[in-house]
């Protein structure tokens, strides 16, 4: 890490009022030592340590959950309209501090600054949206026999645990926390140990914006012991987890044993079908965007492009031209593609490219590291992939795009659905009827037509099959963060 960059990181942390020793945030205060060990936070581009934190022990987690439970008892009594007003203040505070938050997110996760800025704007939008929804969470009246009146109420769950990933730290946090608070719950957040900076800043920002202390407590650490202590706690009434399938299975087992609710957003191997009549330039833009966003480190990314063989050469040429021109560099320099999150992830991505070559696929562009080194991979396009190859079956989580070919639409749909995942999918065609037919048959929680970018906060998001359980975003999220009570009255 250069002296100039080290100075810039120090300035960002100073402006954020974050020391290089982070701790849990409970009841509106940093707790001091976590009494569970020490973990470094490094710069993804270089591996240089930029901060660190004391791991929250089981005792610290217990204090965080119990404090949040007391805050919940008070918060649920606050009128929905007042909850909404307070959440709107938080949204305004995120927008006020957007520049600082974006730079903090960039040095923490490695993502290019322009992408970090978009994430922060999205985080503010979650609070704006659910601020407006807070006083519209209601039950129904139900027709009954004469002399009987029945209705339902939607009531909060209590304390909800949110375990968030490293690839989109603040948007993943706000996506779940905002509807939870709007519905009257309290939360305890455990961000990824790789990217805790914006989450720590945000926990303090909530209190400074006027929300009751304890309503959003934060603990720091890895899955064991911190995450385990959080999910096992007797006062946790729901768990929201975003991460790997293996991690989701472990969380799901805990939820099943404890008989509590769970939201799981897990992996994806999202296909996009590109028909012969498609706008190939638009499809190539979407294919390139998949490796640009978070350097391909996104479960949502479309990383299996299924192309009609009659237009395959033209499409590959267009896509290769777009990918070969992408810049690679440090997030704060605002390149097209940033670094991978860790040395382990770099090794994993390289192994996928090597296995694709071994399996007989051809690397059209990229496939190597920049001369400067670091945790970077040049944007890579692989052609000649078949759906039985490792690169087509597993998440790469890097700037690697795969092209498969098909002869008929039936074949394309079969290939698209031949996966353990079902998070998202896409289709490019100029024929509206074809778009509807394909969208209906694709086994995915979200289908994009003639586009492949993130949808607004109003649109439910979640997966089929091993991509998860439940839905985030939109009004659908509130269904998961409330429970239904039926009231039946004799009025004869």
UniProtKB/TrEMBL annotation:
<feature type="active site">
    <location>
        <position position="265"/>
    </location>
</feature>
<dbReference type="InterPro" id="IPR015590">
    <property type="entry name" value="Aldehyde_DH_dom"/>
</dbReference>
<dbReference type="GO" id="GO:0016620">
    <property type="term" value="F:oxidoreductase activity, acting on the aldehyde or oxo group of donors, NAD or NADP as acceptor"/>
</dbReference>
<dbReference type="InterPro" id="IPR016163">
    <property type="entry name" value="Ald_DH_C"/>
</dbReference>
<dbReference type="InterPro" id="IPR016161">
    <property type="entry name" value="Ald_DH/histidinol_DH"/>
</dbReference>
<feature type="domain" description="Aldehyde dehydrogenase">
    <location>
        <begin position="39"/>
        <end position="487"/>
    </location>
</feature>
<protein>
    <submittedName>
        <fullName>Aldehyde dehydrogenase</fullName>
    </submittedName>
</protein>
<dbReference type="Pfam" id="PF00171">
    <property type="entry name" value="Aldedh"/>
</dbReference>
<keyword id="KW-0560">Oxidoreductase</keyword>
<dbReference type="InterPro" id="IPR016162">
    <property type="entry name" value="Ald_DH_N"/>
</dbReference>
<dbReference type="InterPro" id="IPR029510">
    <property type="entry name" value="Ald_DH_CS_GLU"/>
</dbReference>
<comment type="similarity">
    <text>Belongs to the aldehyde dehydrogenase family.</text>
</comment>
């Amino acid at each position: 890490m250069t002296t100039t960059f080290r100075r810039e990181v120090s300035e960002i942390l100073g402006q954020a009022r974050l020391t290089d020793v982070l701790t849990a945030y409970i009841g509106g205060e940093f707790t001091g030592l976590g009494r569970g060990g020490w973990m470094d936070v490094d710069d993804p581009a270089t591996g240089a340590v930029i901060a660190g934190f004391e791991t929250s022990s089981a005792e610290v987690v217990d204090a965080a959950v119990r404090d949040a439970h007391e805050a919940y008892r008070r918060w649920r009594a606050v009128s929905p309209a007042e909850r909404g007003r307070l959440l709107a203040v938080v949204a305004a505070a995120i927008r006020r501090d957007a520049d600082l938050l974006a730079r903090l997110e960039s040095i923490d996760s490695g993502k290019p600054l322009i992408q970090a800025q978009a994430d922060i704007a999205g985080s503010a939008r979650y609070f704006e949206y659910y601020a407006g929804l807070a006083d519209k969470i209601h039950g129904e009246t139900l027709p009954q026999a004469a002399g009987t009146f029945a209705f339902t109420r939607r009531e909060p769950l209590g304390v909800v645990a949110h375990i968030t990933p490293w690839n989109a730290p603040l948007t993943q946090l706000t996506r779940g926390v905002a509807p939870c608070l709007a519905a009257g719950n309290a939360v305890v957040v455990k961000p990824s140990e790789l990217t805790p900076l914006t989450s720590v800043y945000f926990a303090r920002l909530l209190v400074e914006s006027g929300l009751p202390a304890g309503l959003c407590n934060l603990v720091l650490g890895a899955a064991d012991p911190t995450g385990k202590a959080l999910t096992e706690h007797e006062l946790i009434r729901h768990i929201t987890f975003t991460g790997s399938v293996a991690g989701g299975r472990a969380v799901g087992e805990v939820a099943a044993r404890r008989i509590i609710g769970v939201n799981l957003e897990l992996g994806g191997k999202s296909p996009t079908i590109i028909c012969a009549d498609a706008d190939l330039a638009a499809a190539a833009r979407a294919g390139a965007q998949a490796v640009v966003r978070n350097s391909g480190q996104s479960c949502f990314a479309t990383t299996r492009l299924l192309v009609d063989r009659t237009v395959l050469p033209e499409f590959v040429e267009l896509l290769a031209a777009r990918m070969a021109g992408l810049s690679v560099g440090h997030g704060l320099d605002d390149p097209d593609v940033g670094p991978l999150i860790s040395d382990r992830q770099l090794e994993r991505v390289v192994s996928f490219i090597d296995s694709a070559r071994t399996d007989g696929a051809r690397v059209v562009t990229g496939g190597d590291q920049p001369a400067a080194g670091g945790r970077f991979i040049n944007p890579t396009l692989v052609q000649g992939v078949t759906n039985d190859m490792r690169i087509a079956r597993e998440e790469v989580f890097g700037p690697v795009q795969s092209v498969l070919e098909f002869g008929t639409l039936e074949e394309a749909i079969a290939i698209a659905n031949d996966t353990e995942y079902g998070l998202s999918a896409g289709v490019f065609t100029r024929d509206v009827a074809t778009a509807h037919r394909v969208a209906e048959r694709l086994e995915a929680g979200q289908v994009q037509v003639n586009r492949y970018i993130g949808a607004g906060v109003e649109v439910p998001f979640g997966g089929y099959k091993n991509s998860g359980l439940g839905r985030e975003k939109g009004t659908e999220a509130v269904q998961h963060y409330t429970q239904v009570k039926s009231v039946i009255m004799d009025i004869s």
